[in-house]
Amino acid sequence: MNLLRGYGVELIVAVTPDIAHQLGAVIRTAERHGVRISVWPMLSREEGRWLNVTTASTFVAFVKKLYEMSRREAWPLVEVLFDLEPTFGEMFAAIDSPATARHFVKSLAYNRERLIRVDAEFEALCAMLVGEGVELASAVVPMVATARHPDTWRALLGIPREPRGATQCTMLYTSLLEGWSRGLVSRADALGLLRCGADASLARWGAKAEVAVGLVGPGIFGNEPCYRSPRELAADVAVVRASGARSIALFDLGGVLAREPAEGWLEALFVTDGVSIESTWRARAMWAALDRLPCLQPAATLFRPRG
User: Taking 70 as the threshold, does the pLDDT of residue 8 lie above it?
Assistant: First the structure.
């Protein structure tokens, strides 16, 4: 906590139902050290992990439980971050075999019908939290930051609309874009896609736009490609800042502490030198395809530096 406080970094703590009883102690510890904590609710893998049409009722009930715990145990619930993604099983299958992505197309009509209820249920939860003084954030897939068809992407992926007025964190993990592309995306392409995504996020959400850059340590899948060095993180941060976006999130603190010196990773979050990144033609083509693809149809812990 002293390290985070020294760098002025906020902590976003992932909490699942099996460890929810420990959350109050973590928040109180952070409060004593002057570190701002956001809560990142997640379900178990078996329950689907993230917020979507399949998990919505269970997810909403879990968040209400966390809120009730905060009141009963008298610890501050400052911000809740909602991770809007398909279920763990769907994501795992799509990553393992891109051909299974046709599942999302087959689910389009079903998802559209279900999202009417899910959006209403989710909006009611968000309104309750905001009414109690809780700030909101959401982690969103890059497709909903595109200029034209966010609603179609939401229906394809079965994810609700982002909360109004919330911080919107677009997941633009360059290490994954490159590492999971099977050679299609180079490091230069990943930087170009990061710039395209950061620009689109800023255009859609303005000052509420946040960008999640690459990974320092593996996540839920256990084999996620990570940064090779703090220099790559610093380059990503410079690209995001050059776009005009100011809020950056990094996954994850465990990786930072495991890949010493931790200070090197944290310092990379505060790159101030402006850079000019010209997206590769391949990156521009990929982003344009992401924007237009719906037209073809009958998409641990995080932490962020303050400010």
Answer: yes
Res 68 pLDDT > 60: yes
Average pLDDT, the chain: 89
Cα distances from 69 to residues 20, 124, 131, 138, in angstroms, run: 9, 19, 17, 21
Residues 6 or more apart whose CB falls under 8 angstroms from that of 165 comprise: 130, 136, 208
Indicate whether 299 pLDDT > 50. no
DSSP letters spanning the chain? -HHHHHHTEEEEEEE-GGGGGGHHHHHHHHHHTT--EEEEE---TTTTSSBSTTTHHHHHHHHHHHHHHHHHHT----EEEEEB---HHHHHHHHH-GGGGHHHHHTHHHHHHHHHHHHHHHHHHHHHHHHTT-EEEEEE-GGGGSSS-HHHHHHHHT-PPPPTTSEEEEE--HHHHHHTTTTSS-HHHHHHHHHHHHHHHHHHHGGGEEEEEEESS--TTS-----SSHHHHHHHHHHHHHHT--EEEEE-HHHHHHSS-HHHHHHHTT-------PPPHHHHHHHHHHHHGGGG----EEEEE--
Mean pLDDT of 149-156: 90
Q: Which CATH number, 1.10.10, 3.20.20, 3.40.50, 3.50.70, labels domain 2-298+300-305?
A: 3.20.20
Residue 99: predicted pLDDT: 57
What are the domain boundaries of the chain? 2-298+300-305
Output the pTM of the full model: 0.90
